[in-house]
Amino acid sequence: MVGQFTQVDGEFQPEKDRYHLYVSLACPFAHRTIITRKMKGLEDAIGMTIVDYLRDENGWAFTDQRPKTSLDTVNNCKYLREVYMMVEPGYDGRVTVPVLWDKKIMTIVNNESAEILRILNKQFNAFSATEEQRNLDLSPDELMETIEEINSWVAQDINLGVYNAGFATAQEAYDEGVVKLFKALDRVEDVLSKSRYLCGDRLTEADIRLFTTLIRFDVVYVHHFKCNKKRIVDYPNLWGFTRDLYQTPGIGETVDQEHIQKHYQMVHRHINPNGIVAIGPDLDFDSPHGRDVKFQK
């Protein structure tokens, strides 16, 4: 159910109020698409439903009993699995967020976060709320080679790296995953010591994809996934970068630490059997970062 794109001359043409996003505020991969939708000013063009942060054997559920969540008013489903089964009856594969849904054809257009990010970035400019948002390009052609190279190792060693360490069931697997993770974080720290963003002086999708892992790192991954060799606050440039992006219009307001912390710590009972949610840490993402001054042209 992946790989289909909205295109002006294709089956899935960009239209206002035709498409709908199903997302989780807890999931770092869905978070990429939430940020892009917000930064591109597409809230009035593409609807969005936020699933429950709790998940049982039935998977992602719709509820109006949690902050910011809602029932499925598009397809009237109780669980996201039912949306998948509308496309493929009897579907028994993985049910993941995000999902980009076509309300006209009644099908899933795409459920790959990296691809949905690019769809929202490029294909719906006509419906952006402002000219500035319309002109924002998180995947500029002239930087794509650099973006793709950075994405390749950040995705494998950081975005997935925290899960490789956290879900390891053998010491050897944990050791391998966590060593790769911190080697990659050290590499990013070096890159960010020389430029404001991963690809230079311009914010790109590479930064968004890294940010959604960093914003969860100290509050969840350090203790819950045993990624505790260092915290992000222990990296001067990574910590500054995290605050820089958090304070960028359209990004910080998409972060919900209640959804993040309660999802990981209450759902992953094989890691946290009693589902007790930790109280901290206290982090000030609004504190001055100075990167705008440090790297001003």
Automatic annotation (TrEMBL):
The record marks 221, 264 as: Lowers pKa of active site Cys. GO terms for cellular component: cytoplasm. GO terms for molecular function: glutathione transferase activity. The active site is at 27 (nucleophile), 163 (proton donor/acceptor). Glutathione binds at residues 60, 94-97, 112-113. Pfam families: GST_C_2, GST_N_2. Residues 140-264 form the GST C-terminal domain. Coiled coil: none annotated. Transmembrane segments: none annotated. This is GST C-terminal domain-containing protein. It comes from Strongylocentrotus purpuratus.
